[in-house]
Design brief:
147 residues; Cyclophilin; two-stranded antiparallel sheet; 2 helices
Length: 147
């Protein structure tokens, strides 16, 4: 998968095969565009909302993630009406630019770790994360690329 950012930069994400239903749901939703936001409450994470036809189940869910991990999260316990806007709260793809605990308001959350930003792009990932934290959201385009 490739992410292209409005203010510059691209990241390549490799699917890890540990969350096959999540991977399938995401691939079916691509290509897509959304607003990339910073998740300050969850540490060094940027994320964007999107919607699938059928949300993914919990699989390979973790509450501790590593730099470069790419996760899928939704409120597993709530029934969320789809807004059509891809807003945060529906389904989310998150990218971590540091080792973190996935949390909200001090409570640990669990997210499906389905991919990894290519290691040679760690500096770009961190640059994008800090840029979003300092300057606010920006548009991101996610698309499937040939493997």
């Amino acid at each position: 998968m490739k992410l292209t950012f409005e203010r510059g930069g691209e990241l390549t994400i490799s699917f890890n095969g540990l969350a096959p239903e999540t991977e399938r749901c995401i691939k079916e939703a691509l290509p897509l565009e959304s607003d990339l936001k910073h998740s300050r409450y969850s540490g060094r994470e940027v994320c964007f909302g999107f919607e699938t036809n059928k949300p993914a189940p919990k699989e390979n869910s973790k509450s501790t993630v590593e730099k470069g991990n790419v996760v899928y999260w939704r409120d597993w316990d709530a029934t969320v009406e789809k807004s059509g806007s891809g807003s945060i709260g529906t389904e989310v793809i998150g990218l971590y630019y540091g080792h973190e605990v996935v949390q909200f308001q001090g409570n640990n959350l669990f997210a499906n770790v389905f991919g990894q930003v290519d290691k040679n792009q760690d500096a770009m990932l961190e640059e994008i994360g800090i840029r979003i934290w300092q300057k606010g959201f920006e548009r991101v385009r996610a698309e499937l690329i040939e493997e």
